[in-house]
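FORM 12-B: Structure-to-Sequence Request
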């Protein structure tokens, strides 16, 4: 009669040795892995360099970046949320970043967590609204970035001029006609393209 597998001398010896031995776990990773400089790791936002334009979301092939405009709070904001659990770490967001430093790939090669929030990388930017109709124009930081890039040419655009003046605390808001109807004086205000077209066509 053949003995059960557990009672065979060789297997019994291995089982008893494992039972009375200390547990052994190989630390991972050991030693700590140092990626090469060209390694494409987990993308991270730079809160100071990101201008909130959303270009990263437009070029993301896995659609793992959400762009949400929230106008319900005291200050309207744009929230960008990058989901690392859906990211393929291709580097397109870093390559096509408008400011070139807003989102970069780090050397992080491990992405561990116990909840969806552990895989989210968020960035929040204040939005600028049209003073006439209240529609979204762009994030404030994006317009400030444009002012720096354009230099003196930015003053040819009333919206950019006022954004620059607000940053210098020279003005609080643009010129608003008392009647509420489109007038030429209203051109010197923060307007969306549609409202600016209306004031430009006033006779």
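FORM 12-B RESPONSE
SEQUENCE OUT:
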């Amino acid at each position: 009669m053949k003995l059960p597998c557990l009672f065979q001398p060789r297997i019994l010896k291995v089982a008893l040795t494992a039972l009375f031995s200390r547990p052994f776990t190989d630390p991972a990773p050991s030693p700590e892995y140092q990626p090469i400089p060209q390694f494409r790791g987990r993308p991270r936002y730079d809160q100071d360099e990101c201008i909130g334009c959303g270009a990263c979301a437009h070029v993301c092939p896995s659609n793992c970046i959400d762009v949400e405009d929230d106008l319900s709070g005291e200050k309207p904001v744009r929230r960008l949320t990058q989901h690392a659990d859906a990211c393929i770490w291709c580097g397109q967001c870093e390559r096509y970043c408008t400011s070139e430093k807003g989102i970069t790939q780090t050397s992080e090669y491990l992405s561990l967590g116990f909840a969806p929030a552990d895989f989210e990388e968020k960035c929040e930017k204040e939005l600028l609204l049209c003073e006439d109709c209240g529609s979204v124009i762009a994030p404030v930081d994006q317009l400030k970035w444009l002012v720096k890039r354009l230099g003196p040419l930015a003053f040819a655009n009333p919206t950019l001029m006022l954004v620059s003046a607000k940053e210098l605390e020279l003005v609080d808001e643009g010129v608003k006609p008392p009647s509420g109807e489109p007038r030429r004086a209203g051109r010197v205000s923060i307007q969306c393209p549609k409202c600016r077209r209306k004031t430009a066509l006033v006779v």
